[in-house]
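Posting for a labmate who doesn't have an account.
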Amino acid sequence: MPKPTNNTELVTQMMEFSRFGPLAQIFILDALNKHVARVIASKPEDYPAEKMPFGMTGEAWIDLAKDLKRQMDEFYDRHG
């Protein structure tokens, strides 16, 4: 299998070609869900600018987590 060249390829490879099969997808989505919940429960000041990637603010990081949660909730409400 070729080496992934970007984040999308890496996540796709981990989710689709793991030796653990579909359990890898469950693990990755569970980890994402737990991290999103932790970020949403935090405060912007928990994310100082010097520790944030790409110049993001704490507010933007929390807003991103909320949007990811919304997308997951919508998906699982439709497919649950």
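Reply:
Got it, the structure tokens are right above this. The longest helix spans residues 58-79.
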